Amino acid sequence: MSEPKRLHPIAVLLNIIKSIKELVIPFLLVVVIPGKNEGIPGWIQPLVISIIILFIIGNAFLQWVRFTYRIEDGEFRIESGVFVRKKRYIKFDRIHSIDISEGIIQRIFSLVKLNIETAGGSQADAVLSAISKSDAGRINAFISEGKNANNPFDKDEVADNEYAAKSSSVFKQTLPQLFVMAATSGAVGVFLSGAIAFISQFDEMIPFERIFKDYEDFIEMGTIILTVFALLALLVVYVLATLSMVIKYASFTVIKTDEEIVISRGLLEKRQLTIPIHKIQGIRIMENLIRKPLGLATVYIEYAGGSMEDKESLSIMLFPLIRKRHLHEKILEILPVYETASEMTPIPKRALSRYVFRKFLYFIPIIGALIWFFRPWGYLSLLLVPLAIFWAYMQYRDAGWSIEGNLLLLSSRFFSKQTLIMHRSRIQSITYKKSWFQNRKELATISASIKSGITSRVGMVADVEEKDCLIIKSWYLPKKAVDSQ
User: What is the pTM of this model?
Assistant: First the structure.
């Protein structure tokens, strides 16, 4: 039986930081917005701030004191709770994944953060925010091997050596590839939207009117200077977004053992995620508008795990950037059960008109509104017509399906092309439906879903040959019941 262990004392600081993040809005309201009502003494605000700080520090210390963990009888056991004592027992065979990460604070003290997750839920089942690397390695090894040891903390490096001996490096992302991945990821859009959302929270505090009034003369100098300034600002944001992606996925490595895949990455914050192979539900291949012409793709693992607290754990990146011609070899090496080299069966040519028609249904109201309210400049919106036709053609061209042995592949595009590779035993349901308009052309829509994170991942192809949908349905029927509409 292992003795209960506490986290490293630096966990107190981590608890304080976590509490501040959770209370940042009310704390800012107290600090930034002073009391405006006359008659309220000036010492009220400092007193309130002091009470909040003392409460946060005291609560963080008590959380650290009351938190213990140990391994006993094939279970990972945690006791926590300041006022209400909580005991959680997690059996080894119920654990889906182990996520080991190193934030800036952990790295200073040579510590790591360890998350243990079972079935997909709203949060991780166990979070050890500050433990030594050796303890994390032994916990990871014993859980992975499913051992029922009396005291895993006394086994020194034995478990670690056995674990390392069975592992082999499968994939490593080079620095030039990371820069290409970051530069073509579209992260600049996320970066901009995040900045705009942050600024919008403080629009009442920032004197925009006075700022713009002071620069009216500068603005009147012409649109050329403003255009150059906007382009420079966009370039700066693009560079920052690219660098943030490179830092996030630096040293990206995939290691495979007999039963697990270990993914590690990060420069400032190092993360290591351990995923049991038998929990993997499928593979998703993504090709955006820039990468597809270059023969590049990003590959994700769909698995039954992850938590809402960590959005990244819901979508596990297996290969940040890989050439399509190398994809077959790498999948065969790391997940041979999902290896396939079959060509996709395209949808029929008569389906193209339906793709174009659906796009016009979206764009015609927009074009009409722009022409009506913004004449004569609104007529420029007619340029959206060839854009709609091109978009429809891209979606039509990339739509397709394939069956090879026990694998079903569904390919479609919204903006990026998605190819979902699913094993028949992992498919939760297949839906086959057709509308009156599809029935006239002997077409139908086929979709299949697999477990992914706490929800499902759905692959769908519209306007497939009706007889092809029946082939997919017949292929799936021996294993599961089919939902048909």
Answer: 0.76
Measured between alpha carbons, how far is 455 from 445 in angstroms, rounded to an integer?
A: 22
Cα(446)–Cα(469) distance, rounded to whole angstroms? 6
Q: Give CA–CA dist 270/107, Å, rounded.
A: 9
Q: How many residues does the chain have?
A: 485
Q: Burial, 13: exposed, middle or buried (Cβ in 10 Å; 0-12, 13-18, 19+)?
A: middle
Question: Is a pLDDT exceeding 70 seen at residue 140?
Answer: yes
HSE (CB half, 13 Å, CA atoms) of 190?
A: 10
Lowest-confidence pick of 139-148, 238-247, 341-350: 139-148
Closest CA to 202 of 25, 394, 328: 25
Q: What's the alpha-carbon Rg for the chain, to the nearest Å?
A: 27
- Sign, CA dihedral 198-204-205-210, equals positive
CA distances from 191 to 187, 229, 240, 480 (A): 6, 18, 8, 43
Residue 23 amino acid letter:
L
Among 286, 314, 401, 398, CA closest to 352:
398
Q: Transcribe 227-267 into DSSP letters.
A: HHHHHHHHHHHHHHHHHHHHHHTTT-EEEE-SSEEEEEE-S
Strand partners, 133: none
CA distance 174 to 181: 10
**Backbone phi, psi, residue 136, to 5°:** -65, -40
pLDDT band at 213 (very low <50, low <70, confident <90, very high): low
3 state SS of 55:
helix
